[in-house]
Amino acid sequence: MTPADRSGSWPAAALNDPELVGKEPVIPTVCQTLPAELTQNAKGLLDDAIDADPDNSQPDASRIQAAINACSSGAVKLIAGSNGENAFLSGPLTLKSGVTLWVDQGVTLFASRSPADYQIADKNNCGETASSDNGCNALITATDAVNSGVVGEGIIDGRGGAVITTGKYANTLTWWDVGALTKTVSGANQNNPRLIQVTNKNSAKPTSKNFTLYKITLQNAPKFHFVPSGVNGVTVWGVKVLTPSLAYTVPGYDCPEGTTPTTSGSPNYTRASTCFTPDTTKNTDAIDPGQSQNVLIAYNHISTGDDGVAIKSHNSSACVAPIADKYLGLLPIYTVSNVKILHNRLYFTHGMSIGSETDCAIKDVEIRDLTIDGHDAAFAVGVRIKTDMSVGGEVKNVSYDGVCIRRAQEALTIDTYYSSKTGQAYPDIHDITIKNYHYVDTANSIYNGDNVRVTLRGFSSDGQDLPLKNIVLNNTVFDSAPQLANKALGKIPASPSYAQITMGPGPVSFASLLLAAVENGAPEFEVLDNRDAPAESAEAPYDCSQAFALFPSAASAL
């Protein structure tokens, strides 16, 4: 791939993956077509004058919703107008079973910037901070929906960098400025709208099934981009997630001093930021499949200010009472299972995460052909399983095969002390395989060698001893030796500790560090060396020569 190529094309081996044959989504037939009546400006945004009056904050909402309601099946297709109009402006929309929203190529669906449009009755004020974040509806919601989705080669833009027009901070702060208050105000949670939320009225009996995101671009979400919670059957294929887009920043994210959100020191209540970087767009996770089964995430490009993908399993009444089995007794319910994350590229981001919420258990996760480029961002993370005793639970049968990472400080983390929060949800992580993992040193990067961290820390607190078990490292190679994170925090033990690691049969480039930790008495830290010496001398690191490609959009600031 040449430096100027933003096509996002995939190598033939990825495109011909036999595991994905026949699984690419098919766009449904059109039920209704709606032409655009608004036009984007030269920056790819809407002029503020269009919706400066809060009474005109969502001019297209009613006609889009009416079209959705009128369709029993098929797609509501948003297309360009006859005179080149290419934008829609809407507040919250509700999808129903059998109906898909199709945003055509060249068309953008923009989100209202009025918190009042998203307000949930009798909840915290949308567009403000509070002790919880329950105040806002999502832009697009599907509840108890079967066979619905969002597709097309157009864009859905949450306008996170736009100044909001109603509420406490009307005409003063942007959505992302409100999010930044969570960094400067103790105990604050942002009440900002998500972009797409799929959920169920009754979490004990999930009824949402088979939701599809296909080829759509999601960008500039005020908060999370896509959260399917309690869904059986989720497909995310060929999607781009970009936050912030170039319309809200400058090339290279080289924002002038004083133009970005305030994330430390005294909170900002009076100044609208005008330039944004990924690390100043807080809680803008790209894809967060929570409490969901049969999930496929394939061929996606993700660049955002928080987790690229975060698998979570939390707070569902379905996991409170285990299944009673006639022969085996009580069996736990795994609210997350059969998750496949294949052929994906992450830029910036907090990486590929499992957790932190795992208290309803996670099993059977396959992650293959994953590229992560942290771009030397201070927050950039690679592969991470993170939890703690406030939201911990069982995580098992997770495999990584074919991982390329560069320019990310937290390269490889399995940590049951993600925070110092207390509780009785004890983490239990076991049967994790990391194969064909290659951390690539990069010229002029600040994260090469021992500036890169590996954390391996199981759980031993509160009278519970739950070490990491059967953690297999096979052809796990760093171009130069990383550091084993060893910092203790209060009562939290140092890392590495409470873990049983198996190396081999392929090489493990930091084997000497692991073995030295055993020799130096790391608490309950065991290493089984199954490396095949002849194979180690012959086996090359996993090939990452074609892994790192440009984000496939001219709207990227990179």
Automatic annotation (TrEMBL):
Keywords: Glycosidase, Hydrolase. It comes from the Bacteria. This is Polygalacturonase. GO terms for biological process: carbohydrate metabolic process. Pfam families: Glyco_hydro_28 (PF00295). Coiled coil: none annotated. GO terms for molecular function: polygalacturonase activity. Belongs to the glycosyl hydrolase 28 family. It comes from Serratia oryzae.
